[in-house]
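Appendix B, example 12.
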Amino acid sequence: MSQELITNWGEHDSSLQKILVLASTRLSIFDDDLSKLRLERPDNTDILRRFLSSDRQHLLRIVLKNAEPLRRDSPRLMKLLATFPQNMRVYECPPNLASLNDSLLIADDRHALIRFHKDNVRSKVLSDMPEECRPYVHRFEEIMTEGGEQICATTLGL
């Protein structure tokens, strides 16, 4: 069990990878547009691919305030979405959540990377701390209940 305060982007990136690797069944992400999380990096998408391919029950849920950068600038993540539609879901949240400024990355309801403001690196890392993660898990579930548009890897048409 550990808790750590992050104050620079290098520590943030290594903590993100640490949390991704710790995930064994479920990953939940809420972010502005994923640009600061840098999930599109090849090493991060490789970790996500291994997570998603190791078991059909593994679940990756991502809620974004702005999904356009994902569609435009994240071909690796969009390929993962196309390859694993059964256990990867991406949503663009409704406009009424535009005022939320934090970022959540939660693994298995016991590990988390919490960035306090979308434009600032200041973050908290929780490792193997289910009680401390519980409010963030609850917050993510509340965000999910607000609904939003599901993002698909393919364009639907007639």
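The two ends are 52 Å apart (CA to CA). The longest helix spans residues 130-145.
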